[in-house]
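Thread amino acids onto this structure.
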């Protein structure tokens, strides 16, 4: 399902290229295939300390009305992710997800109740704010918070682990499942680079430490 979601967005991106339109970060298009564990080249976002003059983080500026329904199909971002990542998903009125089967990428836990799942921003909103997003216009913040064009940006995960992850980056949190760590640091670096966000020296050191054991291109 993830690959199907990425493939659809990639085809759309190629169509925009053919029309001569910009498909970079400003229109929220993916810059490559989803991260594959232990394979590929590590994106290299700019390394910098956080700007001490940044404004205070306020979640409402990123999600002013909760999850958006960007394509107007009646399913909001949370529901879109649950539908894309689940198996045998059952829905009710208004696209409400009632049941299904999901695999939490962070822990490997199998989850059968959508009530136990939270939709995690792999790069937390407050992290994005602190690493340059604070200066973005409101529309770009909302687009980042609801980014369905990148199959790794939003993930349906077990709520308990999502709360432990909080707004930490790879210097303070890594997926409990060791097999998920190469994917996680690769996706984290790629999302930061794509949206022109910075990583702190501590975050980059943690990424390099994990990536050194992944067998990819440094």
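Threaded sequence (218 positions):
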């Amino acid at each position: 399902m993830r690959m199907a979601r990425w493939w659809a967005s990639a085809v759309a991106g190629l169509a925009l290229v053919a029309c001569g339109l910009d498909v970079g970060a400003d229109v929220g298009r993916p810059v490559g295939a989803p991260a594959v564990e232990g394979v590929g080249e590590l994106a290299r976002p700019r390394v910098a300390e956080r700007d001490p003059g940044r404004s205070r983080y306020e979640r409402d500026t990123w999600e002013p009305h909760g999850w958006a329904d960007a394509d107007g199909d009646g399913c909001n971002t949370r529901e879109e992710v649950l539908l894309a990542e689940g198996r045998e998903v059952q829905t009710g009125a208004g696209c409400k997800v009632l049941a299904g089967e999901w695999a939490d990428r962070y822990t490997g836990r199998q989850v059968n109740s959508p009530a136990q799942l939270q939709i995690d921003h792999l790069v937390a909103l407050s992290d994005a704010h602190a690493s340059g997003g604070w200066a973005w216009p409101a529309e770009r913040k909302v687009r980042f918070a609801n980014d369905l064009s990148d199959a790794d940006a939003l993930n349906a995960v077990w709520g308990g682990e999502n709360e432990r992850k909080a707004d930490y980056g790879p210097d303070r949190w890594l997926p409990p499942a060791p097999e998920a760590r190469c994917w996680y640091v690769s996706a984290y670096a790629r999302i930061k680079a794509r949206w022109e966000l910075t990583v702190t020296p501590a975050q980059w050191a943690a990424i390099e430490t994990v990536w050194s054991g992944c067998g990819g291109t440094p």
